[in-house]
Amino acid sequence: MPTEPIRRVVIVGGGTSGWMAAAALTRLLAASQVSVTLVESDDIGTIGVGEATIPAIQNFNTILGLDEADFMRKTGATFKLGIEFTDWGGLGESYIHPFGTYGLDRPEVKFHQMWLKLREHAADVGEISDYNLTLIAARMNRFGKAKAKGGLAASLRYAYHFDAALYARYLRAYSEARGALRIEGLVTEIRQDEKGFVTSLVLKDGRTLDGDLFLDCSGFRGLLIEQTLKAGYVDWTQWLPCDRAVAQPCEQAGPLLPYTRSMADAAGWRWRIPLQHRVGNGYVYSSAHLDDEAAAARLRETLDGRALAEPRFLRFKAGHRRTFWDKNVVAIGLAGGFIEPLESTSIHLVQAAVTRLMRLFPDRDVNPALRDEFNQASRLEYEQIRDFIILHYKATKRDDTPLWRQCRDMDVPDSLKHKMELFRDSGRIFRFKDDLFTEDSWMAVMLGQGITPVRHDPVADSIPANDMKTAILVLRSAVMKAAQALPGHADFIQSYCPADL
Fold first, then answer.
1. What is residue 2's predicted lDDT score, i.e. its pLDDT?
2. What is the pTM of this model?
3. 433 assigned to active site
4. Are 168 and 74 in contact (CB under 8 A)?
């Protein structure tokens, strides 16, 4: 039967999620066929503290056709090679989860299995981190770009640190230049048809906005998906007990590091994110173990430089909506769910939802098969990220505070338990095809927090130990030389994309 195409898309809420959605829609849909309207109110603040990303953000920016250097100048961005975790496995311990790969796999066996075998035989082959160019560059505070495809330098993978509010402003200009209409206003009424589909929004000043498809980017409150359609919520507090955050920027002090820092604390963890014009700081904590005033005081005393603003508090519940897409409403970003920012996945989840919507873009009647596919894929993605975040809390030897004893002793989802047992047995890592985090990421966290395999994969025994050792040591030397050849991170920033703020 013939169907009517979507002609009017209405986005409720601005901020990073709203303007990322608007940018993608105006880039990928013909303005002559589909109008994009975004309604937001200056009276409602945005979260705006998402400052760290993962490498997939490059794909989104490429789809939009953004010039990397220009985007970085306008958002005060720096490069991010990974995350340094301090005091997570145990007090005084530290490791880096890098974006790049470890060593070079052979067709029949993974690199880390060869490294495990040589370590079992007491061979002097150093740490696994010695074989990751991205990690070594991060430690040396260096960054550069490969001038040609291939070669060791091309294995360096990166994301960005940037000012989320400036990124939203940048994408707003991009979207409006391509036909998006921004309306300043406060939504006071939501009208629905007899099937429950949203038909229009009524603003405080009496204006009415009609639409065919509505994107809920209203943040935690979920104005459309929850307050109107009652989607429900899946609560993960049993595994992710932190439910508060306080954020406070400060002046830049010390070197401009190309990585995020995550420092485990008594009741949660603190972040440090270096931008060109300031440093983003925050404390994610459990309100059952620490009150807001004490959290703000702890954050304040650990700032590297002079505070640039008063602390901002956030309340959240780890989890997601039971239904991300209901009828003709699609929840994007915080309206859809929230997993604490430990691995910088918040902006990625916006990107993933927008990309998924574009692949499943409906007609006005909204085929249930499209909606169901979107919801199933979204749930799976959230669950896979959830397991990776829980791993950081579970894989700890700490018993110095109630929170860490609780995390160390808690039961975890069977899917995560299985992954941990596989790795502990023989270093094997299996993941779904679309799992956001790579085998190298899982290995970095498990080895970094003390989950050590009791044996290696026997397939590694098919390679003579002496040949294996010679090749590995040559690779370690090459990684070190490649890292030393890179310019300093701050120097590269200054020559490539100095902030234009």
1. 59
2. 0.96
3. no
4. no
